Each structure stands twice: as C-alpha cells, then as structure tokens.
C-alpha cells in the first residue's frame, strides 16, 4: 500500500512537529484535535516555523507555499478515513490513547497503519483496543520532531513484520534514522534517560550543585547539547514526569526509576518549562 496521506491525532508540540515534518517531506497531512480553535492555532504555529525556514534560506518561498497547501486540519476524527498512516500524538495518558484507537478503528480502512508516538506506554496494550493489532505499532519521535534524527519503531506482541518494514521505509523517506525495538517500558531512549533526569534532580536537592552548574558540567564535560534541566524544560516537565511515572509503574516499582517529588512539585506549580514561560529557568 502506497502511503500518501498521513493523519496526525493531537496538535500539541509533538503532533504539530510531526505534521510539519511530513508536509515538508511531500506527504498530505490531516491534523486532528478536539476543537477547531486548538488545531487552527497549531497550524498557524507550523506556518510560522516554515516562514522561519524561508528566512534562514533553508526553503524558498515557492516551495514553502506548496508545502503549506499539504496541511489540512479538522476537529472530526472521521476525516482521517482517507489516511493510509495515522500517528497518535495525544497527551501521555493511557486512557486517552486507548479511546482514540477504538475510535480510529471505526473510521479507518483495515489496511491503515495505526501508530502511537507514546514514549513509554505498552504498544501491546494499546493495540489490544484495535481489531487490527497486527497493523498497530509504536512510532516514537523526539522533540523537536522536524530536527531530531532518531525514530523508535516499536513492535507490539501482535505487530506484523510487514507493518514494521513499512514504518522503517516511511522513516527513511522523511529523513529519519529508524531503530526497531521491543515493547518494553520506556523502549530504549527513555529508559536510558531516566537516570539522567532523576539523578540530576537528586544532586540538586542534596545541594551538591546548582541547576546551572549541573547543566554546564554536562554540556562542557560530557558534551551533551543540553543539560538535564534545560532538556526537561524543552520537552515539558509534565511530559517528562508522566514518562517517569509510567516507566516506574511498568517495572513494578523498581527503585531505579522512581520519580522525584520535586519534579512533581514543579508540575503542580504549573512551571512546566518553555511552553509555560517558566520551568527550572525563566523564559520571556
């Protein structure tokens, strides 16, 4: 099956970023969210980012106009029925994701590949809500999706090899580096990353070093592009905390992945990073 139309469910930071990535790669995209004003705001943000690419000389005006025409928006999930690939990028709550996959099952062709951008939830559990679990897989992008090169392709217990191979080809077509992994908590990257965040918070709260010092040391000594606190602010502290909770629970309370209360307090305060104007750092 040739994939020309791609549906994106969820128009937040990840969803709009994935939509931008696909339209720039020549695909027609239908971006869905629960309300017209929400999804139209996301479309405006995509267009703004494309304008910045023009200013930087990475794309010319004519090409940009053609790219923008490939992005449609909707607040009706049935409008995704024309898509051969649908990527769910809804909030990281398992109930929301399972409900969406049940609805997508009703409106999409049996040949449609349904993929989840979840960073930690079980693809096998999500696929169990679908009548075509062999066509369900994980397709985990990293933030910002148009820039970060890696994509995790996650095989659930019933995901077919054909589905995995199709997603690998799609990843290569959009300029990404695909890595296949099994359906384990946190997959590869988010499992490895938990100590990076959690130990940094512990070091700060034990007054061994400040947030600024920890970030500076990791960048200049470890050659990380961003320190653990800067990275949390960029991703969203709320998203990071939800992922840590999910991985911790999925490993049956393994102490290695236990969330830190301070991260929870940041979420409770509303200081969840760049998108909120404040997190571990202040933003204008």
Automatic annotation (TrEMBL):
Gene3D superfamilies, alphabetized: N-(1-d-carboxylethyl)-l-norvaline Dehydrogenase, domain 2, NAD(P)-binding Rossmann-like Domain
One function term, GO molecular function aspect: NAD+ binding
Site feature location: Important for catalytic activity: 140
Pathway the protein contributes to: Lipid metabolism; butanoate metabolism
Domain of life, per lineage: Bacteria
GO biological process: fatty acid beta-oxidation
Residues annotated for NAD(+) binding in this entry: 10-15, 33, 92, 97, 119, 143, 275
One Pfam assignment: 3HCDH
Boundaries of every 3-hydroxyacyl-CoA dehydrogenase NAD binding domain copy: 5-183
Domain (3-hydroxyacyl-CoA dehydrogenase C-terminal): residue spans on this chain: 186-283
Keywords: NAD, Oxidoreductase
Family stated for the protein in its record: Belongs to the 3-hydroxyacyl-CoA dehydrogenase family.
Identification of the protein by name: 3-hydroxybutyryl-CoA dehydrogenase
Native organism: Calidifontibacillus erzurumensis
């Amino acid at each position: 099956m040739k994939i020309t139309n791609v549906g994106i469910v969820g128009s937040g930071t990840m969803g709009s970023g994935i939509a931008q990535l696909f339209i720039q790669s020549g695909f027609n995209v239908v971006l869905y969210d629960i309300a017209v004003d929400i999804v139209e705001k996301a479309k405006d943000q995509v267009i703004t980012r494309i304008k910045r690419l023009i200013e930087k000389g990475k794309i010319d005006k004519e090409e940009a106009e053609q790219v923008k025409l490939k992005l449609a928006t909707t607040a009706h999930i049935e409008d995704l029925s024309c898509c051969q690939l649908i990527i769910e990028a809804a909030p990281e709550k398992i109930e929301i994701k399972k409900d969406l996959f049940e609805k997508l099952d009703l409106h999409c062709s049996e040949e449609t590949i349904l993929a989840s951008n979840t960073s930690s939830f079980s693809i096998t559990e999500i696929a169990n809500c679908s009548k075509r679990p062999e066509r369900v897989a994980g397709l985990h992008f990293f933030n910002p999706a148009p820039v970060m090169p890696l994509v995790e392709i996650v095989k659930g217990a019933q995901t077919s090899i054909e589905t995995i191979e199709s997603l690998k080809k799609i990843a290569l077509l959009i300029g990404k580096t695909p890595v296949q992994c099994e359906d384990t908590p946190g997959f590869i990257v988010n499992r490895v990353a938990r100590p990076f965040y959690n130990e940094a918070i512990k070091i700060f709260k034990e007054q061994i070093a400040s947030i600024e010092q920890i970030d500076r040391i990791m960048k200049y000594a470890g050659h990380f592009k961003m320190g653990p606190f800067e990275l949390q602010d960029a991703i969203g502290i709320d998203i990071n905390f939800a992922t840590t909770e999910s991985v911790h629970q999925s490993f049956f309370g393994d102490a290695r992945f236990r969330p830190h209360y301070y991260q929870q307090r940041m979420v409770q305060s509303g200081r969840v990073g760049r998108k909120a104007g404040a997190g571990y750092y202040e933003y204008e």
